[in-house]
Amino acid sequence: MEEEVENKDHEADSSTPCSGKKFTTIWRNKWITSKAGSIDDFIKTYEGLAEMMRRWKEEGIEFDPDIIGGVDDDYAQFCSYDEKVALKEGFEEEHTFEEEIQALKNDSFEDWDDPVDSSNLEFSINSHISLKKIEDFIQIYVDNEPFNQCRYLLIIDPQKHENQEEIDSIDEAELLYNNNLETQFTPEDLGITKEQEFWAHCSNLQAWAENEYDTRLLHSNLSFPLLKKLTEVGDVKASKVFKEEIAQRFVRGYIPVMRYLFKEKYLDYLTPEEFDVILNEIDYSTLNLNLLLLNIEDYRASKYGAPFLARIKEEFLDFLTNNRVYVEVVSHKLDQSEYSPVVITPDRQYFIRGSNDGKLKVFGIFNGELIRAFGDHKGQSVSTIAISLDGKYVASSSDTFVKVWDYETGTLLHSFKGHKDSVNALAFDPEGHYLASGSSDYDMNECAIKIWDLRKGQLKTTKGSHWGSITSLSFSSNGDYLVSGAFDKTVNVWDTIKGRLITTLVGHEHAIIDVAITDDGQIISASYDETIKVWDIDTGNVLREMEFCKSKDPKARYGIVTFVLTPDQEFVVTGLQGPSLKDGGMLFIWRVSDGEIIQSLPITQDFHGYYEELNHLAISNDGVFILSASRERMVKVWVEFMEYMEFEEAIQELYQ
Fold first, then answer.
1. What is residue 184's predicted lDDT score, i.e. its pLDDT?
2. CB neighbourhood size of 249 (10 A)
3. What's the whole-number mean pLDDT along residues 549-560?
4. How far is CA 180 from the centre of its chain?
5. For the segment 569-609, what is each residue's pLDDT rounded down to a tens digit?
6. Mean pLDDT along residues 203-232
7. What share of the chain is helix, strand, coil (3-state, %, to 5)?
8. Pair 342, 351: CB distance under 8 Å
């Protein structure tokens, strides 16, 4: 028997070419036709590519499952575990980050071995600029006055990045190759002494000065402040090129630099006529609207921010008219609260937040000021909250009780008792006559949904149909249907008029997180299986599916934590969080009709990478405002861009 097993193992080894090592190659779409000069060149190129891709497929080459690509990503990574195939096709063996660092030390700096004993060094770039190494600091001087310290060197291995003609500036190089070396390793770790680092900075600044202060040769956060300072001290060449460099870099359309020029008010050095000229020189067809609208407060810093956004609105008007696009306008760091459920009042002036001291707290939506507090859950954290469509009632729970409050007075109207375990979900019907609650308890071996009559102040009915904790509830806009989702992976649809279950939707692989229903009978459900499904209520079939997790690696997965359906029922705003989003989370806005992603918004400020830290979303009755709430007391306010522009235009008219 042992001999038979050994023979089988030997046969397996001899029949498979896999070595256990992974070999990869990076493919950039823009490189494919960068040298094509005619249609015939394109035809020839694509025919060759098709032949090569068919060969790769036959050889078992596939997309690297460990690499997640973005919506607008120009890159793809292929991999093979067959060493013979990899060598034949020119793939490189994948190395760990530490191995890459050692390779940099061995290959890139082997000639930097000349000993230098000086602890203090000085070098003059020109009559105005000099650099000094003072112990461990490298300082830039302008007219012998300290200007700024040199931060780090962006290190690129030219043997591994052959297509550097695609990079137009150091800013783009930093984004493409990132600067993770400077955050994880000191120059000494890479074999670079302080003296060698000093001379490298000198070389960079000298090249910049000798090339007419071309701001592409230095990072924008150094080149523009330095150019401004040189202009102030009377550098004739700097004075000549200062405004010209601002205009040229802006017109090139590299969005991080464009935002930087607004934020630091460099564009304010231009006259209104000059700014109008450069607005007309921009190729708007190449601009990414999603990136343009990130950090919109950067535009507000400059006097030209509003005219620029007005031009963006004009250029993208068709898209903006037919799609909901949001911008973050303010962040509020509030009192500590672990869960932090939130709702927006119908007047859009305030939001109500459940706190872990058992209170319901009302805050100004724009200033974040605490207006008042009401309610009492005896010091227990408020776990779920809902507000009626007219804003008259607020419902909340922290345990097995469901409490209903008068919003205006804060008076307790009802304290409903009946659930045997914690209440996880609340939903008012559109008329504000009934309140549905879902819990983790069991009634006849089924988790209970209870419907409370608010006019009579009593339980109307109990529905048990889920075999796991109920996580979400949603009424249709006419109140005829109630949808429930639960940990049993199912979605139930109830006919509220007849009081019966009409269908159960089965297809998710894990617990349901959120549910919603549209007027045309489509059910939307989100699950911990990292998918959102759109179902047909009549057939129970899945019409569309959005899948956010693109990696088999649990450490690189997007986690869906919540979603809201816009009131027009055309778009879904999804909250994503996970270990791969180390700096926070994401908002994805996608169209229900075809599943197309309209916008993706990173949420980074004040997050610390906890799983499900972005744990709640709320949307106003008109869909103009969205709130995102996190575990660490952060609430962010998002406004639909077209509404935001109406506000901006009103301000401009007021000033005029």
1. 56
2. 24
3. 61
4. 19
5. 999 999 887 654 444 567 889 999 998 989 888 776 443 33
6. 88
7. 30, 35, 35
8. yes
At residue 86 the predicted structure's pLDDT band, cuts being 50, 70 and 90, is: confident
Q: For the residues of 116-161, what is the DSSP string, one character each? A: ---SEEEEESSSSEEEEEETTEEEEEETTEEEEE--------TTT-
CB 34 within 8 A of CB 99: no
Helix (H, G, I), strand (E, B) or coil at 178: coil
CA dihedral for 651, 653, 654, 656, sign (positive or negative) = positive
Instruction: Output the CA torsion 285→290→292→293 (10° steps).
Output: 140
Structure token digits, residue 652? 């401009």
Contact 478, 519 (CB under 8 A): yes
DSSP 609-642: --TT-EEEEEE-TTSSEEEEEESSSEEEEEEEHH
Which amino acid, residue 102? Q
CB atoms within 10 A of CB 243: 17
State both tokens at 531: 């998918």
User: Tell me, what DSSP letter sits at residue 101?
Assistant: H
Single-letter residue type at 345: T
Measured CA to CA, the distance from residue 397 to residue 78 in angstroms comes to: 50
- Tokens in use for 613? 């830290």
Q: What pTM did the predictor assign?
A: 0.72
DSSP assignment string, 431-496: TSSEEEEEEEEEETTEEEEEEEETTTTEEEEEEEEESS-EEEEEE-TTSSEEEEEETTSEEEEEET
Cα separation of 532 and 186, whole Å? 44
**Nearest 5°: phi and psi at 537?**
-65, -30
Tell me the average pLDDT across 406-418: 94
Measured between alpha carbons, how far is residue 222 from residues 26, 147, 532 in Å?
31, 10, 44
Encode 554-569: b = buried (16+ Cβ within 10 Å), e = exposed.
eebbbbbbbbbbbeeb
Alpha helix locations (H) across 178-219?
180-184, 194-210
User: How far apart, in whole angstroms, are the C-alpha atoms of residue 267 and residue 134?
Assistant: 35
Paired tokens of 135: 């112990």
CA distance 290 to 250: 18
Contact partners, residue 580, CB within 8 Å, separation at least 6: 68, 551, 555, 556, 557, 558
Q: What is the dihedral of CA 404, 405, 406, 408, to 10 degrees?
A: -150
| Residues 393 and 407 sit within 8 Å (Cβ to Cβ) | yes
Burial of 336 (0-12, 13-18, 19+ CB in 10 A): exposed
The packing angle between helices 305-315 and 641-655, to 10°, is: 140
pLDDT of 139 > 80? The answer is: yes
Question: In this structure, are residues 523 and 476 in contact, taking their beta carbons and an 8 Å threshold?
Answer: no
The 8-class DSSP code of residue 216 comes to: G
> Residues 547, 506: contact at Cβ < 8 Å?
no
pLDDT for 51 equals 85
Q: Angle, to 10 degrees, between the axis of helix 255-263 and the axis of helix 236-251?
A: 130
